[in-house]
Amino acid sequence: MLDFAPGAPGLPGSPGPAGARATGGKGDKGDIGVAGQPGDKGDSGAQGIQGPLGVKGDQGNMGFMGPPGPCSPAIQSAFSASINQSFPAANWPVPFRDVLTNEQMHFDPNMGMYTAPINGTYVFSFHLATNQKPLKVGLFRNFYPVARVTEASSQTTASHTVVLHLSSRDQVWLQVKDSLTNGMFTDSESKSTFSGYLLAAHFKGGAFAE
To answer: Which residues are the signal sequence here (predicted)?
Structure first.
């Protein structure tokens, strides 16, 4: 029987030829990666179109009552004056230049005319001394006589009181008829006076009523 002894290892062989190439099938979806850093803020977008009007909401509850408002001062108007010269000119307002009271300055003593400051009810009165001549005098409102008084006797007094409704800026005055019946008189013992005052203002709905 022949004995065989192992020989030395052989040399490596040459590389084999490249295998055929082909694309493999799509693999499974990988796991979500770690979140990246926030990106920079983008530019503002254009304003969108206005949306439709919403549904009207329910009425709210009544609020609390507010504090009382300040009180307005009552409107006042009054005057009284006497003549300082006897026998005034006819067909012209009689001036009453000796003023007894006229704090609101609604009476013009040189013209003898009272101008109503507001719509309201007013009271006018006159007490006129006469001497030497009879007296025919009228109370006028805006050039229209509203009362006339005749006093034929001398050395007496003609008196009258009238209640009138006036609108703001209406004017009232006294006027004698003519030079034959202008016996209105004044001296140290006798005075001829004209007086008036606001009795009640006419106020309605936040404004002075007519």
So the answer is: none
